[in-house]
Amino acid sequence: RHTIGVAHCGAFARRLNFTGRNDTDPSLDPSYGEFLKRQCPTPVNSTTTVGMDPNSTLTFDSHYFSAVNKKQGLFQSDAALITDPTSAGIVTRFQSPSAFFRQFKLSMVKMGAIEVLVGDAGEIRKNCRVINQSIN
């Protein structure tokens, strides 16, 4: 099953019931909010999935940035991107496929320069936010 670019309804349910009165987050496009409510009815079924990038879920492209600018970001963190002038400028710039792919290419080159840790150098965390407890 293809799951790239998909989120479970529970991951963004707060945006669809913003204050607990079945009201949509005011920073979300109202028609997109209604679409999401049809996809994820209350009570939320945690196995139901929705594309994270409307109209472009299965394509690697710059459409996500256009969606965010139209207030169609699935998560509150998407909405936050356009509240700060610096990040809003980046979102606007990356709506251009050429700008997005140029920066993506540069990022991949930088990631390719990251050295792989071997042996005892580093650890695989059980929880990515917490350093593993030492076993001594």
Automatic annotation (TrEMBL):
Keyword field contains Zinc-finger: no
EC identifiers of the protein: 1.11.1.7
Protein residues bound to heme b: 2
Plant heme peroxidase family profile domain boundaries: 1-132
PROSITE patterns according to UniProt: PEROXIDASE_4
Taxonomic superkingdom: Eukaryota
One GO biological process term: response to oxidative stress
Binding residue positions for Ca(2+): 3, 53, 61
Disulfide bonds: 9-40
Cofactor note text: Binds 2 calcium ions per subunit. Binds 1 heme b (iron(II)-protoporphyrin IX) group per subunit.
Keyword field contains Lipoprotein: no
Catalyses which reaction(s): 2 a phenolic donor + H2O2 = 2 a phenolic radical donor + 2 H2O
Keyword line: Calcium, Disulfide bond, Heme, Iron, Metal-binding, Oxidoreductase, Peroxidase
Gene Ontology terms, MF aspect: heme binding; lactoperoxidase activity; metal ion binding
Protein family: Belongs to the peroxidase family.
Name of the featured protein: peroxidase
Organism in which the protein naturally occurs: Erythranthe guttata (Yellow monkey flower)
